[in-house]
Specification:
The complex is a heterodimer of chains A (about 90) and B (about 140). In chain A, helix 1 packs across helix 2. Chain A has one domain: Beta-grasp domain (Ubiquitin-like (UB roll), Roll). Chain A has a 5-stranded mixed sheet, covered by helices on one side. Chain A has 2 helices and 6 strands; from the N terminus they run ββααββββ. The termini of chain A are far apart. With about 140 residues, chain B is α/β, with parallel strands linked by helices. An 8-stranded mixed sheet of chain B has the order 8-7-6-5-2-3-1-9. The radius of gyration of chain B is 14 Å and the shape is globular. The chains are: A alpha+beta (about 90), B alpha/beta (about 140). Strand 6 of chain A pairs antiparallel with strand 4 of chain B, so a sheet runs across the interface. Bound molecules: zinc ion (ZN). Zinc ion sits at the interface of chains B and A.
Chain lengths: ~90, ~140
């Protein structure tokens, strides 16, 4: 399954400054793994360890948060759009 | 360096004063120009923290960020940073800011004291995540 991953500006320096990357994968987990293999520097940015995504990293498939779908095991259709989206917080 | 227009600076100052004693927050749309960030428009975001915490915390949900990313792409722009206010606190990043920030983005902080907007600063997180560097900014008419 060939899918498109949209990369937020903060992470583009780890993927040769691309705003989107085509990868293979039948699930979100597989697609992200193939992205991480292609761009090892990105891997450290989005994964806490080898399997767990960092807390700020949210993943959307066709505009829906995978938390509301099947998590990392959410199935991807051919040509699906996957977005990596950071949540942003702060204070004083 | 961060480049703003007078109109954008005024909009951030107004948002900070209007939200007082709570924090305002929003997204900076624009372009990268080498290492500089040029802000061309703002998107005000409703602070998603519970109301009792908004006096010292802000949150932009992943859903709001997703919508903003799509909007930016449609406009041919990029999300280059964020702004938030520090009600009755200095315009310097807090430890909480540092723990939750990401490298690359410009973080504008506006001090609002007793309801009036005061100093505005901009910051970028170091790649090591250890500290913010102060970012100079220019306001063009
Ligand atoms: Zn802050």
């Amino acid at each position: 399954m060939s899918v498109t991953i949209l990369i937020p500006t903060a992470l583009r320096s780890f993927v040769d400054r691309k705003s989107e990357v085509e990868v293979e994968g039948g699930t979100v987990s597989e697609a992200l793994a193939s992205l991480a293999t292609q761009y090892p520097d990105l891997k450290h940015q989005i994964y806490e360890d080898d399997v767990k995504l960092r807390g700020f990293v949210n993943v959307f498939v066709e505009g829906t948060n995978i938390k509301k779908l099947n998590g990392l095991e959410t199935a991807l259709a051919e040509g699906a759009t996957v977005m990596l989206v950071p949540a942003i917080a702060g204070g004083c | 360096m961060l480049k703003l227009t007078r109109q954008i600076e005024e909009a951030i100052r107004k948002a900070g004063a209007d939200a007082y004693p709570n924090e305002c927050c929003g997204i900076l749309f624009g372009k990268e120009d080498g290492d500089d960030h040029v802000v061309t428009s703002l998107r005000a975001i409703e602070n998603a923290r519970e109301s009792g915490e908004q006096y010292h915390r802000f949150l932009i949900t992943a859903e709001d960020m997703m919508q903003a990313e799509l909007e930016a792409r449609k406009l041919g722009l990029e999300i280059v940073g964020f702004y938030h206010s520090h009600p009755d606190h200095p315009a310097r990043p807090s430890d909480y800011d540092r723990e939750h920030a990401l490298p690359f983005y410009s973080y504008i902080i506006l001090r609002v004291a007793e309801g009036k907007s005061e100093q505005m600063t901009s910051w970028r997180l170091q790649l090591s995540r250890d500290a913010f560097d102060s970012e100079s900014f220019v306001v063009e008419p």
